[in-house]
């Protein structure tokens, strides 16, 4: 059975939901201005040969993005939320509050995957980022999560982050565990019975970390890289 590849590992609380930055410790009163990144949109091909375009989400993408995210919430085995859907305003405040990216299928322009990058902690610890990844149900198993992860690390570096941490990688999400291990993330520890997931009950989760000091910055199709910017 294929394990859904939606990878979100940061606690979500009421305070964070109303403030926008969505750190586990509450939000920031200062709205984030997206970092200019040259080389977007970028043509990408997954290891299964699926041709896509990496880009920032456009207004025309948002209905598709919300549908993908609500489908994942309803599945109830990847994210810690109890709610099974969000309104568009809630989705924008949560998923689009910092830096967000989509993968569009080349032929149809359909959004087939998406991910965000945002601080995992506030203030003096905001140089450590967190990422949340979703793949549309009909497009799973085609290498999209790995291809997005391969772009996530250089993008995080370019935005200005010094490391990446995933707080909750549920042990039932075998594909996600394999992905982050294969990409050189360090396992920090295991949290027993932290998630009460649909179809699984109380489930352990692994925490992962990767230092971005030696990570190369993002490169677009023209080969140009964007200089590091401040993360917060």
Strand tally is: 9
Note the main sheet: 9 strands, mixed
Poorly predicted regions: 1-21, 226-232
Structural class by helix and strand composition: alpha+beta
Radius of gyration: 16 Å
Molecular shape: globular
Mean pLDDT: 87
By oligomeric state, this entry counts as: single chain
Whole-Å distance between the termini?
40 Å
Approximate strand percentage: 25-35%
Number of helices: 5
What portion of residues is helical?
10-25%
What series of H and E elements makes up the topology?
EHEEHHEEEHEHEE
Note down, in words, how this protein is organized.
This protein is α+β, with helices and mostly antiparallel strands. Strands 1, 2, 3, 4, 5, 6, 7, 8 and 9 form a nine-stranded mixed beta sheet that branches. The longest helix has 16 residues. The protein is globular and about 45 Å long. The N terminus and C terminus are likely disordered.
Task: Describe the protein's topology.
Elements: E1 7-8, H1 14-19, E2 42-45, E3 51-55, H2 62-75, H3 88-95, E4 99-105, E5 111-119, E6 128-135, H4 144-159, E7 163-170, H5 174-182, E8 186-197, E9 201-211
Parallel strand pairs: 6-7
Antiparallel strand pairs: 1-6, 2-3, 3-4, 4-5, 5-6, 7-9, 8-9
Briefly, what is this?
Helices cover 23% and strands 28% of the residues. It is α+β, with helices and mostly antiparallel strands and 232 residues long.
């Amino acid at each position: 059975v294929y394990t859904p590849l939606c990878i979100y590992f940061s606690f979500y609380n009421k305070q964070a939901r109303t403030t926008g930055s969505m750190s586990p410790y509450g939000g920031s009163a200062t709205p984030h201005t997206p970092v200019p990144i040259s080389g977007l949109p970028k043509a990408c091909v997954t290891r299964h040969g699926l041709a896509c375009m990496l880009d920032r989400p456009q207004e025309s993408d948002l209905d598709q993005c919300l549908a993908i995210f609500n489908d994942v919430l309803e599945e109830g085995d990847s994210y810690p939320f109890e709610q099974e859907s969000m309104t568009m305003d809630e989705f924008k405040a949560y998923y689009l509050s910092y830096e967000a990216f989509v993968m569009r299928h080349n032929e149809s322009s359909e959004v087939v995957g998406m991910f965000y990058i945002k601080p995992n902690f506030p203030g003096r610890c905001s140089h450590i980022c967190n990422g949340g990844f979703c793949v549309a149900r009909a497009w799973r198993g085609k290498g999209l999560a790995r291809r997005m992860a391969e772009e996530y690390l250089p993008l995080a570096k370019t935005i200005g982050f010094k490391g990446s941490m995933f707080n909750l990688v549920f042990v039932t999400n075998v594909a996600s565990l394999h992905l982050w291990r294969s990409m050189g993330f360090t396992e920090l520890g295991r949290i027993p019975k932290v998630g009460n997931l649909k179809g699984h009950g109380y489930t352990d989760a692994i925490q992962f970390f990767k230092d971005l000091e030696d990570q190369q910055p993002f490169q677009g199709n023209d080969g140009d890289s964007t200089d590091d910017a401040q993360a917060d």
